[in-house]
Design brief:
Blueprint: E1 3-7, E2 28-30, H1 36-41, H2 45-53, E3 55-57, H3 63-76, E4 81-85, H4 89-92
Parallel strand pairs: 1-4
Antiparallel strand pairs: 2-3
């Protein structure tokens, strides 16, 4: 049995717009904005880094294709399941 752990954006920093193999997803760099309640409670170095340098976000029209392709690819490599992390990223991007 083999499981993998990946971020909701596919990768921890999202999908790099300049990636030749991922260009079909038309990703763009977006900059998360943490809520004041979050930053007053507990700073998170990873979220701070994404806020500063951005995250590669897939074009909304390509999301279905990406989330269909990623699990299919992982299954073809013998992966039995995934844990999806960084789900809070969506709300910090305004989606």
């Amino acid at each position: 049995i083999c499981y993998v752990w990946h971020a909701l954006a596919g990768y921890w920093g999202g999908v790099l717009p300049s990636s030749e193999t991922k260009k079909k997803y038309n990703s763009k760099i977006a900059y998360p904005i943490q809520s004041p309640g979050n930053t007053r409670n507990l700073r998170d170095i990873v979220t701070d880094i994404l806020e500063k340098y951005g995250v590669g976000v897939i074009e909304p029209k390509k999301v279905f294709e990406f989330y269909n392709n990623l699990p299919s690819y992982l299954a073809s490599c013998g992966v039995d399941g995934v844990k999806v992390d960084v789900q809070n990223l969506i709300e910090t991007l305004g989606f």
